[in-house]
Amino acid sequence: MKKVIHIVGARPNFMKVAPIHKAIAARTPLQQLVMHTGQHYDAKMSDVFFADLGMAAPDIHLGIGSGSHAEQTAKMMVEMEKIFLKEKPDLVSVVGDVNSTIAAALVTSKLAIPLSHVEAGLRSFERHMPEEINRVVTDRLSDLLLTPSRDADANLLKEGIDPKRIHLVGNVMIDSLLSSKEKADQLPTLKQLGLTPRTYVVATLHRPSNVDNPKLLAGLLSTLIHVAKKVPVVFPVHPRTRKMIAEQGLAAELEKTPSLKLVDPMGYLEFLSLTSQAQLVMTDSGGLQEETTALNVPCLTLREETERPVTVEVGTNEVVGTDPTRIREAADRILAGDVKKGRVPELWDGRTGERIADLYARVLGVETKRAFG
Ligand code: UD1
């Protein structure tokens, strides 16, 4: 039987692989294995997502953990090579732009194993971002490039990728969102945090370009304090950010504003229950720009650029940069009720996993159990 290996490693990978795995199991006779690199290892950064998404534990766990980019990527590559040689997959499927993705792309292509990149073609055009390097290299090496939106197709065509390898399948993360929303809505998250719907803000910050720069981080945190003086702000803090806040001695300042609630990273369902009822989300995350667009919740992206322009052109996202004055002005405007209207982009319909499963079955020459429709 033909075999597909899915690679996961960091938080945003789990909600992308879950719907693909489920659809392949339901619609095709393909054998599948999930390989977890261990890039994220804390229970709140990894295990909780498997439980929330109804995914079985990974079939293979490499247990790599944190490290410098070279160290982490190289360790993953060494272990992956052994597994690929043993398992001999017919296709390796990678998602997104994390270090686990580029590690698998490099090993797979050197072993001449067909490689599929889900979420191909996104570009921030900022080479200082590790994710941009990961995206560009992975796309170069991929045999199948599965895109979430037409802007991604255009980027790949401009880079000379053969159009026959590009497949517009839609946004697979939205499959997880739509199938989890009802469950998330039943959670008592708002009550536990003393919040009422549409009268609070959710904030996240974890990009190295924002949080590893002390001056920038202090400026961004000052905008959260500003907003928290008007409405409660819930801020689930990524480990990288928590470390920087401690190192820079910024915690005392944040504690002076109790309506700015610093909490631990949240599970998928708990976080979805929070974002879906927020008045505004302020973030530097890529996935959250997409989720807020799908949820029709206003989003301010605290970066100078986005690799997900469809969320701005069609959705609720506004890229406001990192200047505190500009961020405060935009947040004040939205809290005063002046919000940008958005629509849900094409093919963000909850069926991307099915389209991917059918494509993999076709490419690997196996019959699908059900015709796509
Ligand atoms: C990674 C991805 C980023 C993604 C993000 C989601 C890369 C280059 N970056 O960034 O694209 O948006 O995941 O969260 O792949 N740490 C823990 N516990 C964990 C994992 C990490 O404490 O379970 C700490 C460690 O100190 C580690 C740091 O967080 O050094 C950064 O983790 P890392 O995986 O290197 O990058 P992220 O910033 O999480």
TrEMBL record:
Enzyme class label: isomerase
This protein's UniProt keywords: Isomerase
Pfam families, alphabetized: Epimerase_2
Domain UDP-N-acetylglucosamine 2-epimerase: 23-359
Top-level taxon: Bacteria
Keyword Oxidoreductase attributed: no
EC number: 5.1.3.14
Keyword Isomerase: yes
Gene Ontology molecular function: UDP-N-acetylglucosamine 2-epimerase activity
Family under the similarity heading: Belongs to the UDP-N-acetylglucosamine 2-epimerase family.
Protein name in UniProt: UDP-N-acetylglucosamine 2-epimerase (Non-hydrolyzing)
Organism: Corallococcus sicarius
